[in-house]
Amino acid sequence: MSIYLIIGFVFLAVFLFSFVLLYFLSRSKDPVHLRLKDLAGAPKGEEEEKNAIPSLKGVSKLLGLGSEQAAGIRTLLAQAGYRGRQGVFNYYGLRLFGALFLGILSISLSLYFHLQPEVVALLTIAGVFVGGCLPWFWVLHKVRQRREQIRRSVPSILDLIVVCVEAGLSLNAAMQKITEETKNSHKALSEELFLVNQEILIGKTRADAFRNLARRTGVDELRSLVVMLIQTEKLGTSIANSLRVLADSMRVKRRQQAEEAAHETQVKLVFPLVLLIFPELLVILAGPAVINLIKTLMEMAK
C-alpha cells in the first residue's frame, strides 16, 4: 500500500511543479499583464527587459534545444494552427506530462497485477515513449488536416480575388474583403489571409508577407501563388489574368488527383475482397454442396 502512496505523491508533485512553471511562464508573457504594468508606471530599462517576452533563443535555452530545432517546432505548430507565443512551452510541457503520466500509470498497473520486474520495466518504457510521442502525432495530424482544408479552399479563394480585382479593388482590399466574407466557409485560409493583411499594415512588403504565408502553411498551391504574385508585381502584368490561369491549373490538378485516387481505390479494394469477403462467399455458396457430398460419401461407405 505504501508504494502506491509514494507513486501518487510523486505524480502529484511533478504535476503541480509543471503546472506552476507553465503558469508563471505564460503569465510573464500575457500582453494584458504587461499592458497593465505599463499603465501602472512600471519601471523601464533593466526591469522591463526582465519582464519582457522571452525570445525564441531563450525558449531554446530553457528547453535544452538548438535554436533551429525550436524554430522548426514553432513553424510546425503554426502550420497546425497553434500560433500562441507560449506554443513551444505548451507543446513540450504536454510531452513531459504525457510521458510522466503514462509512465507512472504503467508502473502502478504493473505493481497492481504483480508482474515480473522485466515486464514492469518494459511497460514503463513503453508508457513513457507513447506519452511523449502522442502530442507529436496529434500535431502532425492537425498539420495534415489543416493543409488539406487550405488546399481545398485555394481555387475558390482565387476566383473571389479575381472577381474583386476585376471590380476595381486593389489586391490588399480584395484580400481584406474576402477574409470577412469567407471566415465561416473557408476558416483556415481566411485566418492566413487576415495575417497577411496585418503584416502588410504594420509595414512589411507584400512579397515578405506572402513568403511568410507559404512558410506558415506549407501548402504547395500557396507557394505557387506566392511565386506568381511576386513575379506579377515585378513584371507589372495583370494580376487578374494570372490568378485566373493559376486557379484553372489548380482545378485541373485537383481533378487529376481525384481521378488518381479513384483508380487507386480499385486496387485497394482487392485486399478486403480477397481476405474478408471472398471466404464468406465461398462458405455460403460451396458449404451446402460440401455438406451434401460428405453425407453421400458416408452413406456409400455404409
How many domains would you count in the coordinates?
2
H-E string: HHHHHHHHHHHHH
Radius of gyration of CA atoms, rounded to a whole number: 29 Å
- Give the terminus-to-terminus CA distance: 69 Å
Give the total of beta strands.
0
What structural category characterises the helix and strand content?
A: mainly alpha
Give a quick set of tags describing it.
mainly alpha; 2 domains; 302 residues; Receptor-associated Protein
Structure write-up:
- The chain has 13 helices and no strands.
- The longest helix has 50 residues, at 117-166.
- It folds into 2 domains: 2-46 and 56-145, no CATH class; 147-260, Receptor-associated Protein (Up-down Bundle), CATH 1.20.81.
- It has helices at 2-28, 31-39, 46-51, 56-63, 67-80, 87-112, 117-166, 171-181, 187-201, 206-217, 220-235, 239-268, 270-301.
- It is an all-alpha fold.
Provide a brief overview of the structure.
The protein is an all-alpha fold and 302 residues long. Helices cover 85% and strands 0% of the residues. The chain folds into two domains: 135 residues, no CATH class; 114 residues, Up-down Bundle (Receptor-associated Protein).
